[in-house]
Structure prediction request, 295 residues.
Amino acid sequence: MSAISSHSGVVPMRAVPLSGQSADKVVFSGVSKTYGSKAASMVAVESFDVTIKAAEIVSILGPTGCGKSTAMNMIAGFEFPSTGAVLLDGKPVTGPGPERAVVFQQAALFPWLSCLENIVLGVKSRGMPRDEYLRRAEQLIAAVRLTGFENHYPYQLSGGMQQRVQIARALISGPEVLLMDEPFGALDSQTRLMMQELVLQLWQEYKPTIIFITHDVAEAVFVSDRVLLMSRRPGRVKLSVEIDEKKPRTQDFISSPRFVELQKQLLTALRAEVGELGGPGQVSLNKATAKTADH
Ligand SMILES: Nc1ncnc2c1ncn2[C@@H]1O[C@H](COP(=O)(O)OP(=O)(O)O)[C@@H](O)[C@H]1O
Ligand SMILES: [Mg+2]
Prediction:
C-alpha cells in the first residue's frame, strides 16, 4: 500500500526532511512548566532538553504524575512552556496544527457516527474533497484492519477496534508527528501486543515521528528507537536508552536476550524513581502485569 499522498490544502506526510531542512523534528530547549499561581504553583517539568529526529519513535516512560502528558501537550500546542522553548521544525509551537495528531487512551469517538464517519469527520470539516478523504479512509481502514467495519457504530466495536479507529482518524490528515498518550493503557495484554505491532507497521508505511507515552517498560522497548525515562516530578530526563534493534520487529525480539537486558535496565531505573514497591497502576513490569480491560 502506498503512503498517503499529499493534497493541496492538506499537510503531506513528510518523514524525511527536505534537503537543507533540519532533521530535528521536535526540540525541547531548557523547558520548564509550572502550573498554578505563585501561592499554589507546582513545577510539572523542569530542565527538559530533548531532541527528537524526524521519523524517530521515542517513548517516554516515567512514574505517574511526572509530567509525561505535560511534555506531550507542549508539542501538541495545548500547553506552553513557562521557560525555554518547544520547537517544531525549528519554530516555536504556538498552538495545535494539522501536522501533529494526538491519540489518547480513550478513543472518544462520536457514538452517533459510524466508524468511517468518525475517521473522516475532521478532514471533511477542514474542506478536504470527498474523493480524497474517502480514498485515504479506505487505505487507512485497511491498514488498521477494520475493513468490513466501516458502517459499524462505536458501541459495536471492541476497545482495541475503537483505538484503531482513533489511530486512523489521527493519520488521515497526514500528520508528520503522531503523539500517543498511553494509547493502549486500557487494553488487555493480548490486544496491546497486536496494537504495538500495528504501530510499527504504520510507521513502516507512513514514517511519522512518533512520541509514545507509556507506563509499560516492555511496550516502550518494543516500539521505540529510543526510550526516555523521566524522573519523579518535576520531570527531567533521567535516562535515555537507544533500542538498536532494526525494524520491522517481530515478537522474536521480545524473547531475545537483548530485549530482556534493555527491559531490566529500564525497569531498575524506573523502580528507583517510583520508590520501593511502586504501587498499583504506576509501573507495568511486563505485558503479563498490564491492566486488563476490554479489547
Ligand atoms: N492543567 C493542569 N493544571 C494543574 N496541574 C496540572 C495540569 N496538568 C497536569 N498537572 C499536574 O502536573 C503534574 C504532571 O502531570 P502529567 O503531565 O499529567 O503527568 P503524567 O502524564 O506523567 O502522569 C501532575 O502533578 C498533575 O497533577
Ligand atoms: Mg499522563
Summary: The chain has two domains: 24-99+175-289, 106-174. Residues 1-21, 277-282, 284-295 have pLDDT under 50 and may be disordered. Residues 68-69, 181 surround magnesium ion (ligand 2) (CB under 6 Å). The longest helix spans residues 189-206.
